[in-house]
Design brief:
heterodimer, A: mainly alpha, three-stranded antiparallel sheet, 3 strands, 67% helix, B: alpha+beta, Penicillin-binding protein 2a (Domain 2), Beta-lactamase, 3 domains, seven-stranded mixed sheet, five-stranded antiparallel sheet
Chain lengths: 398, 624
């Protein structure tokens, strides 16, 4: 009221009209973040266009067209989401969490099986994989639970509660079976808890439990004859340790991807690329798209892509620090961890230093659910950024 | 609650620490990725590039046709034909044992082979060359090929390939000389001469196919094709193509016409035996054969062990044995010209010296008699050869043993090539045995025989009896040496190597094996004696050669070869007195030389001089 009165009393000499950017809601976005995400998606479309021309007989642009549409939808979704106040999601946490659990469970009932696992629904225009969007939903819901549960119960009870909330959907996804995504869920849970201030001792205990569990699953259980992982899952997880021994299947993929990337040398092989063009590298449009980039564009191209990811994650971490409230801090931390984990595991798998877990490369791997979900996650980051800017307007110039 | 949470005093510091650790971890993880990327692409990129290149390129060998083998007049003795071969690629067979078994059994049915045999074939080839395609069968019919192509999905790992297969337009003709072709064996692959080969390649395994393999073989072509991960050629992916180089043609010294006559003369007698017809100066083999023989086309198909066993079995006649160069027999009286040279050269006798032949020769209480108990009276060397006097040669054998160095006979026989490989350009030649005092005395010292060398052994050797073991080729060489005045020829069947266009690449003219000093006077008296033996009424083979229009000089031989019946020999030089050809024939259990071996030699010479048997028998032919 006071301000209004002041303005009426002393009219501004110049009419302060909102700029075009402001009117479009772009003014307070993190431009670097948006551009790095769009650049990665564009790079993906370019790569798919050059590397998958012969993949679908009769339609050389099959993957490009679809990935282009997903990218456009994703950008629109990002812009829309950035204009919402993310804090609303905190209030909706129970609904979001319920939707997350129901949607990943529904796959068991209605989903179609691709390569032996049920992960997606077949929708009229594309298949929807709820667990991809589920990553973002889990961040939003879990951050809400952490904030609101901060004062309830002892620290230990809180830790157990967060763990259960995070691991329940992870277990559902694991049963689809989709080991990779369930690992991402786990990483998100731990990251949100970490940023949310779970005591170090608890984190250390969880870390020890993870090590023990890994040993149990990979070493002890198969040894006593009750394997928990499916054979291919276990082989994928362990074959990167000695790929030459597994030249048939999992190790073969990894060897071929490594060879492809190595063959790219400094500047890449362009259309001379053979490893990724002639089907030696499997899943080259999805999990192994980084190998395509490595072979076609060489160190120059692959390092550029990695740098864009570094930029993306740097901006995400920066948003963690500028958030106007703790919920935003936790959400941004969860999303940053989600991106970092996926990029490191996927690129590491392409480079032969991480096991094959079926985790897509965010924004680059072909797939509508993944591209869309990642853009939406970037949209949430933008929202946090925008809210921070709006609340601090005039105090900081950045 | 939200407010109070945020306002907790230590929260911001604690959060800052956590976020710093978070950011630091992200930095470390990206550093790892960048470092690894640099290592793969920049540090060891070249290695990976090479690996990627070998990944996508498949090399296919395109087999080269072997060179043809021609006779001296250009007639094709061994040619090629193309054939469809059924190959199994063991790596592409179904992994599942039951499925594999079903497929192999089905293949066996289609190719009329038992499942056991299919498996054994694969197992044997895999031992030699793991992973290489296995030729299951050659010459599969077109209908089978169509069937397999239409049902490709039921036969993973089965391919049909066009291959070259040896063709023998003349059947068994000169089979032993031509030899055979077969897949290179594991042992052979380790030899230097087969270094460039790969398992499954065809190489000559016997005969001239073996000895001239390097010329005949040619060089396989190489097609490099870019393939995708499934091994399928990519469009336009033919990278480099190196066409196969056909093998060079080999022209033999063999005269097909003469070879036909020789083989017919041999089989006509129905006996196991061999013959050699050779140019006395150059050592060119004009015809050579061994009976029984075999069809070399047998080896163009996978051959059963039973067939192989039969070819080598002595009971079945050992058809694979080339008796012309590896059949070892005592030579009987055909040895006498060799004894003559030795005696003349060592001074044991002179060309005109007479020795009294009373029908028997006694040495140390043992009596050696002439064949048939004949008495020839006082005879010189020419007459002794004509009537084949044993007593005359017993005497010479005894004299040479009594005169130091006591081994003149062995030395001269050795110089003429007896007991040694002649060095012919064929594999499998045997040296035979020229018995010497040292040889027998050694055996005696090792208690492998009951007595040391004695004068009796020398006497026996002088008439080609006892321990002597020689083959027709050695006898032909010895006679040729006497006839040509002392040059020991190096027998050979290869004449020249030509390229496909007929340009001569290499003439095969081996140096003589040696030179011995033979006085023309000695040669003349021996040839005269041999001429009389063949064509004067009292000669041992007058019944056969008496009416032959061409003057010849030939010697019969009838050798005791216990426990078998007598070995029949005939060695003849023609035309007399300046021979160009020598023919040596021998038959196992053929009896008198004049009964079986001489008629066969007559057939060969008739062909050589182009005189029909009819002209010969009416006796009207004039001396040319």
């Amino acid at each position: 009221m006071y301000a209004t009165r002041l303005r009426q009393a002393r009219p501004e000499p110049f009419a302060v009209r909102p700029s075009l950017a402001e009117r479009l809601g772009l003014a307070y976005m993190d431009g670097t973040l948006a551009l790095s995400a769009i650049a990665l998606a564009a790079f993906s479309v370019l790569t798919l266009g050059q590397a998958t021309m012969n993949d679908v007989p009769g339609s050389p642009n099959y993957f490009v067209e679809r990935q282009g549409v997903y990218m456009a939808l994703g950008i629109v979704g990002m812009l829309l989401l950035s204009r919402l106040d993310y804090s609303r999601f905190r209030e909706l946490r129970v609904g979001i969490y319920t939707f997350l659990c129901v949607s990943v469970s529904l796959v068991f009932v209605f989903g179609f099986a691709a390569r032996g696992s049920r992960r997606a629904f077949d929708l009229p225009f594309f298949s929807f994989q709820p667990s991809e969007l589920g990553k973002l939903l889990l961040v939003l819901a879990l951050a809400g639970f952490v904030i609101d549960g901060a004062r309830r119960g002892s620290a230990r009870q809180r830790t157990v509660r967060y763990l259960c909330l995070g691991l329940a959907p992870a277990a559902l996804v694991f049963l689809q079976p989709d080991l990779g995504t369930s690992l991402v869920f786990g990483a998100i849970t731990l990251a949100v808890m970490y940023v949310g201030g779970v005591p170090w001792t608890h984190l250390a205990a969880i870390g020890a439990a993870v090590v023990a569990l890994t040993t149990l699953v990979l070493v002890v259980a198969p040894a006593v004859g009750t394997p928990i992982l499916k054979g291919y899952q276990e082989e994928r997880l362990t074959s990167f340790l000695n790929p030459e021994e597994h030249s048939s299947d999992a190790g073969y993929q990894q060897n071929q991807a490594k060879t492809a990337i190595g063959a790219g040398e400094m500047t890449g092989r362009g259309d001379q690329a053979t490893q990724t063009r002639l089907d030696f590298v499997p899943e080259r449009h999805t999990d192994f798209i980084f190998a395509v980039i490595g072979e076609r564009y060489g160190f120059a191209g692959a390092a550029l892509v990695l740098s864009l990811y570094a930029l993306l994650i740097w901006r995400a971490l920066r948003i963690v620090t500028v958030s106007k409230n703790s919920y935003g801090t936790l959400v941004a931390g969860g999303i940053a961890a989600m991106l970092l984990f996926q990029v490191f595991v996927n690129v590491g798998m392409n480079l032969g230093i991480m096991p094959i877990t079926g985790i897509p490369l965010p924004l680059m791997s072909y797939g509508g659910s993944s591209v869309l979900a990642t853009f939406l996650a970037v949209g949430v980051l933008q929202s946090i950024h925008m809210q921070a800017r709006l609340s601090q307007r005039g105090r900081f110039a950045w | 609650m939200f407010r109070s949470y945020e306002r907790e005093p230590n929260m911001n510091n604690r959060l800052a620490l956590r976020l710093a650790i978070f950011g630091g971890s992200a930095l470390v993880l990206f550093a790892i990725l960048f470092f690894r990327l640099w290592q793969l692409q920049v540090v060891s990129g070249e290695e990976y590039l090479a690996e990627a290149n070998s990944n996508r390129i498949r090399e296919f060998r395109v087999s080269a046709p072997r060179g043809e083998v021609l006779d001296r007049n250009g007639e094709v003795l061994v040619g090629n034909r193309t054939s469809l071969a059924l190959l199994i690629n063991p790596q592409k067979l179904p992994a599942d044992a039951t499925e594999r078994r079903t497929e192999l059994a089905r293949l066996g049915e289609l190719t009329h082979t038992s499942l056991r045999r299919v498996r054994r074939t694969i197992a044997e080839r895999q031992k030699v060359a793991a992973g290489a395609p296995v030729t299951l069968r050659r010459d599969v019919g077109a209908y089978l090929v169509y069937y397999l192509q239409e049902n490709q999905d039921d036969f993973p790992g089965v391919e049909v390939q066009r291959v070259f297969v040896r063709r023998y337009p003349n059947g068994t003709l000169a089979a032993h000389t031509l030899g055979s072709v077969g897949e290179v064996s594991e042992e052979q692959l380790r030899e230097a001469r087969y270094r460039s080969l790969e398992p499954g390649d065809q190489v000559g395994q016997d005969g001239v196919e073996y000895s001239y393999d390097a010329s005949l073989r040619g060089r396989p072509g190489l097609t490099r094709i870019q393939v995708d991960a499934f091994g399928q050629p990519t469009p336009g992916g033919r990278l480099v193509s190196q066409p196969p180089v056909p093998g060079d043609n080999l022209q033999l010294t063999i005269d097909a016409g003469l070879q036909v006559a020789g083989d017919a003369a041999l089989t006509g007698q129905g006996l196991l035996g061999a013959y050699v017809a050779m140019d006395v100066r150059s050592g060119e083999i004009l015809a050579m054969g061994s009976n029984p023989t075999y069809d070399p086309a047998l080896f163009t198909h996978p051959i059963s062990q039973a067939t192989v066993d039969r070819l080598y079995s002595e009971d079945a006649g050992a058809a694979y044995l080339n008796r012309a160069i590896a059949g070892l027999y005592p030579t009987g009286s055909t040895f006498k010209p060799i004894t003559s040279i030795a005696a003349l050269a060592s001074g044991a006798v002179t060309p005109t010296e007479s020795i009294y032949d009373d029908g028997a020769f006694t040495l140390g209480g043992i009596t050696f008699e002439n064949a048939g108990g004949a008495v020839h009276g006082s005879i010189g060397m020419q007459r002794a050869l004509e009537v084949s006097s044993d007593v005359f040669y017993y005497t010479l054998g005894d004299r040479m043993y009594e005169t130091p160095p006591r081994t003149a006979l062995q030395e001269w026989a050795g110089r003429l090539g007896i007991g040694e490989e002649t060095g012919i350009d064929l594999p499998g030649e045997q040296a035979g045995l020229l018995p010497t005092p040292a040889w027998r005395n050694d055996l005696y010292r090792q208690r492998l025989t009951d007595r040391p060398w004695s004068a009796g052994d020398n006497v026996n050797l002088a008439v080609g009896q006892g321990d002597l073991q020689a083959d027709p080729l050695q006898m032909a060489v010895a006679y040729a040496t006497i006839a040509n005045g002392g040059m020991v020829p190096r027998p050979h069947v290869g004449m020249q190597v030509e390229d496909a266009a007929g340009r001569v690449l290499r003439e095969i003219e081996p140096e003589p094996a040696g030179q011995v000093r033979i006085d023309p006077e000695w040669r003349d008296v021996i040839l005269a004696g041999l001429h009389d033996a063949a064509q004067s009424p009292e000669g041992t083979s007058y019944s056969v050669f008496g009416g032959f229009p061409v003057p010849v000089a030939g010697k019969t031989g009838t050798a005791e070869r216990p426990p078998y019946a007598d070995q029949s020999w005939y060695v003849v030089l023609a035309p007399y007195p300046d021979p160009e050809i020598v023919v040596a024939v021998t038959f196992e259990q053929g009896g008198f030389g004049a009964d079986t071996a001489a008629p066969a030699a007559l057939d060969i010479l008739s062909e050589y001089f182009d005189k029909s048997a009819a002209q010969v028998s009416d006796g009207s032919g004039a001396v040319e």
